[in-house]
Amino acid sequence: MGLKGKLVKTTLVLVLIAVLPGLPPKTVFPFKPISIAPVRPLTGVLAPNQLLNGAERLHEGGLLQPEGVLVRGNLTYVSVYGGKILELGDQGTVRTVAKLGPECVGTFSERLCGRPLGIDFDTKGNNLIVADPYLGIWQVHIKTGERKLLVPKTNAIIDDGTTGRTGGDGKQSPATRQPNIPNGVSVAKNGDFYWSDTASDFIFEDAIQAVLCNPSGRLLHYSRATGRSRVLIDEVYGANGVVLSPDESFVLVGELGGQLIRRYHLKGPLAGTHDIFIDGLPGAVDNLNGDAGGFWAGLVIAADEANPSFVAMLAPFPNLRRLLVRLFVLVEAPFRFLYDLTGSEHALWATHHIGHLGGLVSLFPNRGTVLRIDWEGNIVLALHNDDTSSHVISQAVPQGKEHLLLGSPVNRWLGRVRLTPDTLAALKLQPNAKAAKPGAGDHQKPPVTLTREEL
C-alpha cells in the first residue's frame, strides 16, 4: 500500500473515532462550538514590563508545587503536593499543619496522596478551609492539624435549586452530579464558603482532556449549617479561583479555559443572577486573592496575539476536540487497566503523565503575569516577567508592605518579588471617581486607582 493509501485509511479511522456515537468518554455536556472572547492586546495598562523579574526562590527544593498561598502576620501557609498544608515562619522554619492523604509513592501518585489547591482562612474558628481535587474539601485546625471532611468526593449533598424534581427520564438534574475537581474556596463572614468544581468529565491529573471537553465546571455555595452545597453557576470552562467582594454582595470565579472571570450576585436587585465580570484576559485565570480595594489574579498560562491559547484555538471545533479526547482515552486505557489489575507503579506513572497539564509546561510562553483588578472590573496594574523566574503563577499574595508572594503549580519553591515604589504608590492611591465595569466582550477601559489599602 502506498503512502497515499495509508494516509487515506488513517484519516478515515480518525474521522470515525471523532464522530462515531457511543465511544468513550461519556461527557456531561455534548461537544459543541465554544465562543471565547479575543485576548486583550498587551498595550496600555497591560503593556509588558519586568516588575516580576528576578523573583527570589524561598525554600527552594523544599516546596513541591506550592499552589495555594495565605499570609497572616509573619506566617505563610501554602498547599503543596502530597496532601500537605505547610506553615512557613519568618525565620525560615517549616511546619506541617496537616497531611490529608496517605504518603506518596512518587510525584506521580497525587490521585492517591492528594494535592491541595485552594485554601482560605475560616471565619468560624482557627481553621483553614482546604480544597483538594482528589480528597474533597476539608476543615483543618491551624494549630492541632485536626481535620474534618466537609465536602466529600462521593455522597456530597449537591442542590441545583430543583431538589425533589426530576427530569422526564426520572433522573436527577445533571447539576447535582458529585464534585470531581474541588479547586478554589472563599469563606464568608458567617462561616459558609463558596467553592469551585473545575470540571466533571475527568480527574485533575487528566486536565488536558478536561479542558478539551465542553465546559462542565461549577461555582457552588456550601452551608455550614446544613452541610449542603448549592450550584450557583454551571458550565464554567475550568472553574478555578474564587473570591468574595468585601461587602459579600457578589462572588467571583476565575475561568481557566475562557480566560475570564464570572460574577454571581448575592445581594441587591440582581441577586441570583450571574454575568461576566471581565473577559479577554491575557492568560488562563488561576487563584484570586482579595482585599478591601480589589484582588490579585494569577495567570497560570500566558496568552496573547503572539502566543494564542491552545484551548481557545480548539474551542470552535467540537469534532476535533472530541477526537483528541478519545485518542487520549484510548492511549491511557491499557495503563489504567493494568494499574487497576496489578497496582503497578509504572502503570500509575503512565496514567498520571498522559493528559497531565504539567507535561506541557515547557511549551508555555515565558511570560509570567499577575493582574491587580478593582471591584468594578478594571485592571489597575499588570505585573509581568520575561525571565521565567516566576512564570506559571497560580496565586499572588502580598507579604508585608513591600513584597508579593507567587505560588505555582509546577515550581519547587515559593516565589517572592519586591514591589517597586511606583507600584506601591498606585496601590495606595484613592480613586477620584467610580468607574463603570466593562461589559462582556468590552476591551479595557483606562485604568483607575484603588481604594486606600495598606498591603
How would you describe this protein?
- With 455 residues, the chain is an alpha+beta fold.
- Helix content is 16%, strand content 31%.
- It has helices at residues 3-19, 110-113, 207-212, 310-314, 318-342, 345-353, 421-428; strands spanning 56-58, 68-72, 75-80, 84-88, 94-99, 119-121, 127-132, 136-141, 147-151, 158-159, 182-187, 193-197, 217-222, 229-236, 239-244, 250-255, 260-265, 274-278, 283-290, 294-302, 368-374, 379-385, 395-399, 403-407, 414-418.
- A five-stranded mixed sheet has the order 10-14-13-12-11, with no helix packed on it. A four-stranded antiparallel sheet has the order 1-25-24-23, with no helix packed on it. A four-stranded antiparallel sheet has the order 2-3-4-5, with no helix packed on it.
- A hairpin with a 6-residue loop joins strand 13 and strand 14.
- The longest helix has 25 residues, at 318-342.
- It is globular and about 70 Å long.
- The relative contact order is 0.16.
- The model is unreliable at 163-172 and 432-455 (pLDDT under 50).
Keywords:
455 residues; glycoprotein; disordered C terminus; alpha+beta; 6-blade_b-propeller_TolB-like
Write a concise synopsis of the structure shown.
Residues 183-268 form the Strictosidine synthase conserved region domain. The chain is an alpha+beta fold and 455 residues long.
